């Protein structure tokens, strides 16, 4: 498992917010969670990587947003459905081909169209009205 952490910094040494972000980020957004979070929050991927490594403190509203996504994902029942599809695909190579084709088509249809994450430092949204 790749961690994007410098070798001198072990996972146990991460600040609590960084640990929490890493734990829930992958669960909520999948393997490419850092890129997807950057895209969703309109921040640079490097910013998310800094939060995940503990180099910068992750803002509270980001953790709340990811926790909300995770709760929504769990509530939907889709995680269980995908595990079932994965199990069936492991048993049948033909099913794997068909299922992956349909899932790829579905992903293209439902994927939000937005620009790639920006490579810039995170700047909190203004709270002024």
Automatic annotation (TrEMBL):
Region (Disordered): 109-129
Native species: Bosea vestrisii
Ranges of biased composition (kind: Basic residues): 120-129
Name assigned to this protein: Uncharacterized protein
């Amino acid at each position: 498992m790749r961690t994007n952490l410098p070798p001198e910094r072990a996972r146990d040494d991460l600040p609590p917010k960084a640990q929490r972000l890493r734990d829930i980020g992958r669960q909520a957004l999948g393997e490419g969670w850092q890129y997807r979070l950057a895209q969703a929050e309109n921040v640079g991927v490097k910013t998310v990587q800094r939060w995940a490594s503990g180099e910068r403190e992750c803002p509270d509203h980001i953790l709340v947003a990811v926790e909300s996504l995770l709760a929504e994902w769990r509530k939907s029942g889709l995680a269980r459905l995908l595990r079932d599809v994965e199990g069936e695909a492991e048993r049948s190579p033909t099913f794997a081909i068909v299922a992956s084709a349909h899932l790829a088509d579905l992903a293209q249809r439902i994927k939000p169209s937005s620009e790639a994450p920006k490579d810039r430092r995170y700047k909190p949204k203004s709270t002024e009205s």
